[in-house]
Amino acid sequence: MKSRTGVLLGRLMRNIMRSPDTIITVAITPIAMMLLFVYVLGGAIKAGTDNYVNYLLPGILLMAIASGVSYTSMRLFNDVKSGLMARFITMPIRRSSILWAHVLTSLVSNALTVIVVILIALLMGFRSNADILHWLAVAGILGLFTLALTWLAVIPGLTARSMEGATAYSYPLIFLPFISSAFVPTKTMPKIIRAFAENQPVTSIVNTIRALLYGGAVGNGIWIALTWCVGIMIIAYFFASKAFKRQLG
């Protein structure tokens, strides 16, 4: 299984490397948002930090990942509609390898996008006092978040009837950080919006990453963040597997 998954992964990664504009395009919107909020709106936002890019970066990274996973839906949709999926199914490979190749491709490509965004943030003044263990924890949480959203992306990639339908689901995910602690503290929000913001997954994930990067108290927040990521991943995997079985006939 590993070798066959590796071959399929290599096929998808070669497609990405032939058109690196995919990674660049995914990174453009989060980077543009970071520039806008830091240099245009940052002076008017009271986030309790001297360097607003430090406060902003965790949410921007989640936006970048949410944007990037839409390409998983697009690649799966293209494989289904072009007949490649049907051809793969007839080959002597484990059928789960087909989906895992797409999922691992998303993990690698989104990691590259995250690196690009962090490099731009460094140029904008981002600094962290986190040690290697804290950085590894941040990488782990971002990886779990990517896997959770990617398995969500698999579902419309297999079931959508049009390219627009395959990728449209990602738009709410991209804008979910706006109703969270990603850009401003939730205590500044009206009560109803604050209640939603404080109890949706992005806030706990953002707060945990922020604490890990800047030496804050992680507390129970990390377990809430991990529960959200793992819970979404398990549920999405279940429905994605069901959709794939229907695709197999």
Automatic annotation (TrEMBL):
<dbReference type="InterPro" id="IPR013525">
    <property type="entry name" value="ABC2_TM"/>
</dbReference>
<keyword id="KW-1003">Cell membrane</keyword>
<protein>
    <recommendedName>
        <fullName>Transport permease protein</fullName>
    </recommendedName>
</protein>
<dbReference type="InterPro" id="IPR051784">
    <property type="entry name" value="Nod_factor_ABC_transporter"/>
</dbReference>
<dbReference type="GO" id="GO:0043190">
    <property type="term" value="C:ATP-binding cassette (ABC) transporter complex"/>
</dbReference>
<keyword id="KW-1133">Transmembrane helix</keyword>
<keyword id="KW-0812">Transmembrane</keyword>
<comment type="similarity">
    <text>Belongs to the ABC-2 integral membrane protein family.</text>
</comment>
<keyword id="KW-0813">Transport</keyword>
<feature type="transmembrane region" description="Helical">
    <location>
        <begin position="98"/>
        <end position="126"/>
    </location>
</feature>
<feature type="transmembrane region" description="Helical">
    <location>
        <begin position="166"/>
        <end position="184"/>
    </location>
</feature>
<feature type="transmembrane region" description="Helical">
    <location>
        <begin position="222"/>
        <end position="240"/>
    </location>
</feature>
<feature type="transmembrane region" description="Helical">
    <location>
        <begin position="53"/>
        <end position="77"/>
    </location>
</feature>
<feature type="transmembrane region" description="Helical">
    <location>
        <begin position="132"/>
        <end position="154"/>
    </location>
</feature>
<keyword id="KW-0472">Membrane</keyword>
<dbReference type="InterPro" id="IPR047817">
    <property type="entry name" value="ABC2_TM_bact-type"/>
</dbReference>
<dbReference type="GO" id="GO:0140359">
    <property type="term" value="F:ABC-type transporter activity"/>
</dbReference>
<feature type="domain" description="ABC transmembrane type-2">
    <location>
        <begin position="21"/>
        <end position="247"/>
    </location>
</feature>
<dbReference type="Pfam" id="PF01061">
    <property type="entry name" value="ABC2_membrane"/>
</dbReference>
<feature type="transmembrane region" description="Helical">
    <location>
        <begin position="21"/>
        <end position="41"/>
    </location>
</feature>
<dbReference type="InterPro" id="IPR000412">
    <property type="entry name" value="ABC_2_transport"/>
</dbReference>
